[in-house]
Specification:
This protein is mostly helical and 237 residues long. 78% of the residues lie in helices and 0% in strands. The chain has one domain. It is built from eight helices and no strands. Helix 1 packs antiparallel against helix 2, helix 4 runs parallel beside helix 6 and helix 6 runs antiparallel to helix 7. The two termini are 20 Å apart.
């Protein structure tokens, strides 16, 4: 299936709400605002707990879910506190960034400041598109679930769009795989945190730093590999 091409002229902004991705974005923004309000209110009532939630969110966005979840367990949080919160954070991430990418691709909106980010996401999706396309929905599910690709659910959703999956099917597959992955990470990271604390009270935080360093190095290697692949493809063309 060919990659969807953007239309020659930008449609009216009134079409946003009639567009499936526009409605996804609307829901995602509502969830994001609700989360921000809850954290803001909670800051005055439970500042210590909200600080942990805030750091978990930041680590999830900047480095990845494993680091954010590991910090939550290192701070003494339980599955009930870590798992639902990270599910909400990653749901918001997918339901905001993925629709923004598609709407930008269709030229319904043009967020110029995000274009470099979208370009990187598109390139990352292109490098795995053919592999996922070969196996369809199952391939997309495995791609999002397995952490070795170092790309995350947003890139998975973009791949789903590029291979022609219907929007809600694409979103359902990506989120289901993401939730299952969060559950598996929760079991692993909680056990690692319990094991680390037997050595020292601060050992779980050292584990967080180690995970962050490993993920950062893997991401740098992955990005360098992607740049090399893109360069080779350009030369061949």
């Amino acid at each position: 299936m060919n990659i969807p091409e953007p239309p020659p002229s930008a449609p009216s902004h009134f079409m946003l709400i009639a567009n499936t991705e526009g409605r996804m974005l609307f829901v995602g923004l509502i969830l994001a605002v609700a989360l921000a309000m809850l954290l803001g209110i909670g800051w005055y009532l439970y500042p210590k707990e909200v600080l942990v939630y805030s750091v978990m969110t930041s680590l999830n966005f900047v480095i990845g879910r494993a680091t954010g979840m590991a910090f939550g367990y290192a701070s003494g949080f339980t599955h009930v506190q870590v798992v639902p919160f990270n599910i909400l954070v990653e749901t918001i991430q997918v339901m905001v960034v993925y629709p923004l990418f598609v709407l930008s691709w269709k030229q319904l909106i043009i967020p110029r400041r995000l274009q470099p980010y979208f370009t990187r996401m598109h390139r990352a999706a292109e490098t795995r598109r053919n592999m996922v396309h070969k196996f369809g929905i199952a391939g997309l599910f495995v791609f999002v679930f397995v952490p070795f690709w170092m790309t995350g659910p947003v890139v998975g959703a973009i791949i789903g769009y590029l291979i022609g999956l219907r929007p809600w099917v694409n979103l359902g597959v990506v989120l289901a795989s993401t939730y299952l992955a969060i559950g598996v990470w929760a079991l692993l990271l909680n056990e690692l945190s319990i094991w680390a604390v037997t050595f020292n009270h601060y050992a779980p935080y050292a584990l967080v730093i180690a995970i962050a360093l490993i993920i950062t190095v893997m991401q740098l290697i992955h990005r360098r590999h992607n740049r090399s692949s893109i360069a080779r493809t350009t030369l061949e063309q």
